[in-house]
Specification:
The complex is a heterodimer of chains A (506) and B (148). Chain A is of the alpha+beta class and 506 residues long. Chain A is built from 13 helices and 17 strands. Classes of the chains: A alpha+beta (506), B alpha/beta (148).
């Protein structure tokens, strides 16, 4: 009995052990990927999880070795090391990348346990694996993101001047380009704030605005002039990006800058040249002004003498001249007078070049009516005049008055020999401008000479036909040009002329 | 031109002899020519007014009633003469009429600032010139009595 009882006890304990093993096996089969191979690596057993992950049936796996799921990912050295470990009876642990039947890749965390015979040689291996594909994928993504970030950083460091400061502006990091351009070493810069490179060029408001922008979590962009260690200046196109903590407050700033010193120097040079040019123009204008005055003085004096002495001759020796003598004397005086007018007109024309426009709103109908009265106050000819209700305009009053007087004088002059002289003044609104016109039914001109009308000293009539110096219309053109308008004319010989000028609407 | 014992009424300072002759002729027409004294540059004018150089010993208290002063002159120009006249207590009350070739002359404005009393543009046309000179000459002689 005791023997039997003992054997029952053994049997029961064996049963218990078996139950335990089978429980373990169940648990392992449920949780892990399990394979058993012989000492050569030929698969003797594969559990359901193995089949599921490798997508091979058990039948397809049994009798094969692990090359069936080899992904080719691991170097030969790695595989050799694995075999070396387990062949020597040691447990191997590691991560393996395998290939399933359908070509998809999976990762397994692997433990291979060798089972040894009495000669301490492995007779089989049990491989227990866990699926870590998801983790590996995340790792790979993370790795590639990290790689991407480091590529970006590399590219940024190569291309830009980079600094990182804390929320107070204390420099925590500078890259090589920052050191290169500022001529400070990174140890000289770190721990300082940006005042170390302050050029004092920018007004306080400008700097304050920068700080307000970034302290409020907004990106600031602008151009800054900085001072390097050796006292030289450099310009940087700057973007400062604030990084915010959970409370929305900046905890650091990254400043990315590009060297624009060359461009700024070119700009400054341009400005300097422009200033120089303006100065030169001003100087030339002053010279011209002095020259104009000198001309008006020096040319007038002899003219005055010619005219005056001819007059004295006429007054004091009147009895000694016959009619022809008096006529000749008169020609001398008339021409001296004409030249005086010519000089005046020319000076007026030159003066216009430097006159600044004083713009105001002009009631053109009133201005034109007044100009008409002024022009015709000493004429005896009867004109039919028609002044339309004209559009008002913003322009220089005295100059536009000059234009009207000149155009009306022209119309009056060139229609004075016509029977029933008629003058019409109109205006019309066009897109962006008002077009005014002064027309007459006088001597007119051939359209082919129309372009010559507005040149200085250009005339289409001789002085004995119609008096004039040829400056009036040139003056009109110059005034209208200065206002950004246009002048043009249409004419027909002996039928009349129509002069137009346009002024832009502000 | 200046008769002994006769007080000089108009001092004409003009470098251009033709202009001077025409001015004097114009004044003569206004029956005031005998009281005109002509000096042909600014340096001489200063010597005359302040009794130095060529005019050393002249009684400088005999002052002209009006000075006709050309602006553009060699050596001492009209503006400098004006400045001297108007900054000296002895002469600053004498009316000074500027003669200029052009009203565009920017110096005219400065002359007013310096105390000039009026100006005459010397026109090319003789009649206008005569009229202007005679009128201004008369105005300052007859209607304007500078305080002694």
């Amino acid at each position: 009995m005791p023997t039997k009882q003992k054997s029952i006890t053994v049997e029961e304990s064996l049963k218990k052990s078996l139950k335990e093993v089978s429980d373990y096996k169940y648990a392992i089969d449920e949780s892990s990927i399990v394979a058993i191979t012989d000492q050569k690596g030929i698969i003797l057993h594969a559990n359901d999880n193995f089949c599921k992950i490798s997508k091979y049936s058990r039948k397809e796996l049994i009798g094969q070795d692990h090359r069936i799921i080899n992904s080719g990912h691991h170097p030969k050295e790695f595989i050799r090391n694995l075999w070396h470990t387990i062949a020597n009876g040691k447990i191997w642990r590691g991560e393996l990348k395998n290939k399933a039947k359908d070509g998809t890749i999976y990762w397994v965390d692997t433990t291979i346990v060798p089972f040894l015979n009495e000669e301490k040689k492995p007779y089989q291996y049990v491989a227990i694996r866990a699926d870590i594909t998801e983790r590996k994928r995340t790792e790979e993504i993370l790795e590639s993101s990290l790689k991407e970030i480091s590529d970006y950083k590399y590219a940024l460091d190569e291309s830009s001047i980079v600094a990182i400061t804390d929320q107070k502006g204390i420099i925590k990091y500078v890259n090589n380009n920052f050191c290169k351009i500022s001529k400070y070493s990174s140890s000289e810069l770190i721990g300082q704030d940006h005042r170390i490179i302050n050029s004092a060029y920018h007004p306080k408001d400008f700097i304050r605005n920068l700080w307000i922008t970034i302290a409020n979590g907004k990106i600031w962009r602008g151009e800054l002039k900085n001072k390097a260690k050796d006292g030289t200046y450099y310009w940087v196109d700057t973007t400062i990006i604030p990084f915010l903590n959970e409370l929305g407050k900046p905890y650091q700033y990254i400043a990315i800058r590009a060297d624009i010193t060359m461009r700024k120097e070119a700009e400054e040079e341009n400005l300097r040249l422009k200033f120089e040019l303006e100065e030169r123009v001003k100087q030339r204008t002053e010279e011209l002004e002095a020259f104009s005055y000198s001309i008006s003085h020096d040319l007038r004096a002899p003219l005055r003498a010619i005219n005056g002495y001819a007059k004295m001759l006429e007054e004091d020796y009147n009895d000694l001249f016959d009619i022809e003598g008096k006529r000749l004397l008169n020609v001398v005086q008339e021409n001296a007078k004409r030249m005086g007018v010519l000089i005046d007109d020319l000076l007026a024309f030159a003066r216009l070049g430097r006159k600044k426009l004083a713009k105001s709103n002009i009631k053109m109908t009133e201005l034109t009516e007044a100009a008409w009265i002024e022009v015709t106050k000493s004429t005896t000819t009867k004109y039919t005049i028609k002044i339309d209700q004209l559009h008002s305009i913003v322009a220089d009053r005295s100059l536009i008055n000059q234009v009207m007087i000149n155009l009306i004088s022209n119309a009056v002059k060139y229609s004075s020999k016509t029977k029933g002289p008629k003058i019409e003044i109109k205006s019309e609104k066009e897109s962006g401008s008002i077009v005014y016109s002064v027309s007459d039914n006088g001597a007119g001109f051939e359209n082919e000479y129309g372009n010559k009308l507005f040149g200085v000293f250009q005339r289409l009539h001789s002085p004995d036909e119609f008096e004039g110096t040829g400056v009036g219309l040139a003056l009109v053109k110059r005034i209208i040009d200065k206002h950004g308008g246009k002048v043009w004319a249409k004419g027909e010989l002996n039928k009349g002329a129509k002069f137009y000028f346009s002024l832009p609407i502000r | 031109m200046v008769e002994k014992g006769n007080e000089i009424e108009i001092l004409l300072i003009e470098d251009n002899m033709n202009d001077a002759e025409m001015a004097i002729r114009a004044l003569r027409k206004g029956n005031i020519a005998n009281k005109v004294f002509h000096l042909k540059d600014g340096a001489l004018a200063m010597q005359f007014l302040f009794g130095t150089g060529l005019y050393e010993g002249r009684n400088i208290n005999e002052k002209p009633k009006v000075i006709l002063l050309d602006l553009k002159m060699p050596k001492v120009n009209g503006m400098e003469v004006l400045k001297q006249i108007k900054s000296n207590d002895l002469t600053k009350k004498i009316p000074v009429v500027i003669l200029t070739s052009s009203k565009e002359n920017p110096d005219v404005e400065k002359c007013y600032d310096l105390g000039a009393n009026s100006y005459i543009v010397k026109p090319v046309e003789f009649d206008s010139f005569s009229k202007a000179v005679a009128e201004v000459g008369l105005y300052w002689l007859l209607y304007n009595h500078p305080t002694a």
